[in-house]
Amino acid sequence: MNLSSKLSKLRQQHAFSQEELAHRLHVARQTISKWEAGQVVPELSSLVDLCDLYGLSLDRLVRDDDCAPGLPTPSHAPQQLIAFLLRAKRATYAAHAPELPPSRSGNHEYLFEEGPWRYLDSYYGSAAFAGMETVWHNNQSIWCMNYTGQVIAEPFSGDFLKDALLRGTPEEPYRGPQLYRHGDWTYTCRSDGDIHWFSGMESIFYQNRLVYKLTFHGTTLR
Asked: What is the Cα–Cα distance from 52 to 60, expressed in whole angstroms?
């Protein structure tokens, strides 16, 4: 398989559009198109970036050898990850599910398992807190999100926060929807990036006064 065919196959296997891959590599979309059409060979720096992104050696990527071992394929599709993540979030903290027995002093943990999938939400603190959500597939960690937040004024409603988190969307599955209102309460969430690499912030307002905020960021791991 030649290099241009490998580049096209790898991009599709990892569910990147040409635009998404171009953004990650800091090149123009037309550059990706020319690589895959065999019109241009990537510069060495771009080849190294591609190897880092796909978990390949440079030799494995550039060698024109039809007898070489097959290209690695992800064990899941991003759509499957997103769907599972939404189900897990709606079944744990947001659903008032019981916590696991703490594995470390002061730790709060929520677990959701479904077939080969496993989700764990683990955090410390209360009014000010920090935590991490992790997803495994076939016992391989594949996605992780870190978050830190705080209640900055009263009144604050944990029930309203949980109600908002039940309404996460496939477009932005990290926390709740972009906007949710109920009575005097307003929830907002903004994020940049996609399921592979993202960051964002959520806020809660009571009668237009900010009472809570949280920042988050995460990435897929393979």
From this structure: 12
Rounded Cα distance between 29 and 18, Å, is: 6
CATH top class, domain 3-62: mainly alpha
Name the least confident of 42-51, 83-92, 120-129, 165-174: 42-51
- Per DSSP bridges, beta strands 117-125 and 107-114 are antiparallel
pTM of this prediction?
A: 0.68
Average pLDDT of the residues of the chain: 90
Residue 190 identity (one-letter amino acid): R
Largest CA distance in the chain: 66
Tell me the domain boundaries of the chain: 3-62, 78-220
Backbone torsion region of residue 6, taken as left when φ is above 0, otherwise alpha when ψ lies between -120 and 50, otherwise beta: alpha
Unique residue bearing structure tokens 């759509």: 79
Sign for the CA dihedral angle at 66, 67, 68, 72 comes to positive
Give the pLDDT score at 64.
66
